[in-house]
Amino acid sequence: xxxxxxxxxxxxxxxxxxxxxAAEGPVPVSVVERPSFPVNxxxxxGKGANAAAVLAPGxxxxxxxxxxxxxxxxxxxxxxxxxxxxxxxxTAETYGRDAVGVFxxxxxxxxxxxxxxxxxxxxxGTSAIDYNGRFCMSSAAAGGIRAFGLDRGLPFPxxxxxxxxxxxxxxxxxxxxxxPFVRYLRELQENGGTLIVIDPRRTRTAELADLHLxxxxxxxxxxxxxxxxxxxxxxRTDEEFIGLRTTGWEQTRAAAMAHWPEHVEAVTGxxxxxxxxxxxxxCDASSAMVLTARGPEQQAKGTDTVSAWINLCLATGNAGRPxxxxxxxxxxxxxxxxxxxxQKADQLPGYRKLDDPAARAHVAAVWGVDPxxxxxxxxSAYELLESLGGEVRSLLLMGSxxxxxxxxxxxxxxxxxxxxxxxxxxVVLSETAELADVxxxxxxxxxxxxxxxxxxxxxxxxxxxxDAPGGVRSDLEVLHELAALLGRPEGFPTxxxxxxxxxxxxxxxxxxxxxxxxxxxxxxxxxxxxxxxxEEHPGTPRLFLDRFATPDGRARFxxxxxxxxxxxxxxxxxxxxxxxxxxxxxxxxxQTRRVDALNDAxxxxxxxxxxxxxxxxxxxxGDRVAVVSRRGRTVTPAxxxxxxxxxxxxxxxxxxxxxxxxLHTNPAxxxxxxxxxxxxxAVRLEAVAP
Length: 690
Ligand code: SF4
Known about the structure:
Layout: E1 5-8, E2 17-22, E3 29-33, H1 46-49, E4 65-68, E5 71-74, H2 77-95, E6 100-104, H3 110-124, E7 129-131, H4 134-148, E8 166-170, H5 174-177, H6 182-190, E9 194-198, H7 204-208, E10 211-213, H8 220-233, H9 239-245, E11 246-247, H10 249-257, H11 261-268, H12 272-284, E12 288-292, H13 294-297, H14 302-315, E13 325-328, E14 347-348, E15 352-353, H15 357-367, H16 381-386, E16 394-398, H17 402-405, H18 409-417, E17 421-426, E18 438-441, E19 450-453, E20 458-462, H19 475-485, H20 496-507, H21 519-525, E21 528-529, E22 555-556, E23 575-580, H22 596-601, E24 607-609, H23 611-617, E25 624-628, E26 633-640, E27 648-652, E28 666-669, E29 676-677, E30 681-687
Parallel strand pairs: 6-7, 6-16, 8-9, 8-12, 9-10, 11-22, 12-13, 16-17, 17-18, 23-27, 24-26
Antiparallel strand pairs: 1-2, 2-3, 4-5, 4-18, 14-15, 19-20, 20-21, 23-30, 25-26, 25-30, 28-29
Helix pairs in contact: 2-19, 3-19, 3-20, 4-14, 8-10, 8-11, 8-12, 8-14, 15-20
C-alpha cells in the first residue's frame, strides 16, 4: 500500500490525480504519480510535478499583514479580523449593504465557493459578489444553457474522446495548458479519428492536427457560420435528429445561409478550400465533437460564438448521443464547481437562479433565513471591479489576483486603490494583496481537504497531506470568524465535510444536484459525476442521451450573426493582439512565478510576432518591443515565429508590470455572459532602442 496521500493537482481544470509523500526539508511533501486516477493515469505536466514548491515557508504567507502608515506590517489574527469586521460594518452603515463587495475565485474548493456566497448573502446582505471565473467560463456557460438548458463543461468523460470520429478544438491549446489531456487526442488519431485545430497560432496542439485553420482573432463566429452554410449547401444536415430532438432550426438555417463562404473567407482569413476540407472532415466522421476554450469564448460576442459552434453540432446530429457533442474545456482548477454554488452574481447553490422565487425559498430554508432577506442579483466581475471606490467602498477578495488577470488591468488597479478598504485572503502576497489594507494568509491545496469539480463534471476530493505552517488559517475559518464578529456565530462550520453536507442539501433538486455525493463515495469511486440526486444514483457521466435539460427535452438552436470585434485594427493601432498561456506558468502566475523550475522554463513576458511584421518594424529576435494600445504600453522581448499570422501578435498573460498583457485587453462585455473581450484588441508595435 502506498504511503502517499491521494489528492489532485492545485492548478488547472483537468485536476490530475497525484500522490503527496512526506519529505524532509523546507518543502514538506513530494509529488508522486497516481496512475489509478483515470483522467491522467499518473501523467503530470511541469506545473503539477513542481506544485509542492509553493508549500515552502519562504514561498508563502505565514502571518496576517495589516497596513499601517502606508506599509503592510505583520499582525495577529484578532487584529486583522477585527479590522475587517470594523471596516465592512462601517461601510455598510454609511453607504448601505451593497457598498460591501466580495470577489471570489475559480480555484476555490466547492466548499469555499459555497460558504463565500452564503457569507455575502446572509452575513453581509450584499448583492455585490462575483468572481474571476466570470472571465473564464461565462460565455460557454451561457451558450450551453441557451441550447441544452444546462451548463456542464463536458457532457461526457474525457475518456470518450478517442472513440469519436472527429474533434474540432476551437481556441484551445491543451498541449501547453493541460498536456496530459493530449493523450486522448493522440488515441483519437490512432483509432482513425481526425483532429481539426482552430487557432490564430500554429500552437503545439495545432502541430498535432490533421487540419489547422488560423482565423483572425475575433472571427470564430464567422468561421462556424461558414461551416454551417457549407453543411447545409452540401446536404450534410441530419434532418431526422433536427426534427426529433431540436427546435429553432429554420431561423438558424436562414442566418447561416446569409453568411456566404466567400465572405467568411474574407472575414476570417481562412482560405475557402480549408473551410471546405474542415466541413468534409467533420461530416464524414461517424460522430464528432466540438470543444471550445477561451479563444472563442473570451470575446464580446462569446456567447453567440459558442452558440454558432453548438448549432453546427446540432445541425449534424452531433449531440445527445454517445461520442458526440459540444463541450467546453474549462480552465481554472474549479472552474466548473466554482460556477455552480453561489459565488456568481446571479446565482444560488446547485446552479439555482437568485431571481427564482422557488430557488430562493429552497436555499433560504437550508440557511435558516427569510427568503426575502436574500439580496437580488449583483454586477458581473468586471462591472464590480469598475464600481470599486464608487458604489462599492470595501471589498473582500478571496483567491484572485485581478491586478494581473483582469482586463484593462491598470484601470482595475486604480479602482482597487480607490477603495476605502480592501482585504485579501491568499496563499502568497500577490500583486493584488500588495494593495490591501489587510492580508490574511490561508491554507492551500495540500494543507486542507475539499472537493473540486473537474472539467468533466466529476466531483473529486483533494485531501489534506500536510499541516499548514503555524499562523495560517483556512478560508472556512476566516469566514467563520468574520461571521461571528459580524453577529452570526452559527452557520459557518470550519470542517469542510460539514460544509459539503450542507451544500448537498442546498443543491438538492437544483440543476447541479450534488445531493447523492458524499466524501465517502468520492473516495470509493474516485469521483462522482453530477447530477447525482440520491445516494443510490450512479452519477451522470454522460448527459442528454435521452433528453436535453430544456422544458420540452429538445435542444434549442439559436440564430446568430457575425459581428466585428469591439475594437478592430485601424490606422493608429493596426495589429491584432491575442493572449494566452504558456506551458510552465499558470493564470496570473501568483503561485507558479514562485517556483524556480517553472521560472527557469518560462522566465518572463514576451511578444510573439511574425518575421514579416518584425521586418517592417526593424525588430530582430530578442529585441525589446513596445506594444501600445488605447489602454496601456508594455515593453517585452520579441519572439519571432512563422507560427503566428502576420497581422496578429500574441502575449502570454502571466506576468505583472511592464509585461502585463492585460494592460491592453479590452473590457468590452458580452451582452449575455458579461465576459470581457480578452482575446482580441488593437495595438501598435514600436521598436525600443536598446
Ligand atoms: S495538466 Fe493541469 S491538473 Fe494536470 S498537472 Fe498540469 S496543471 Fe495540474
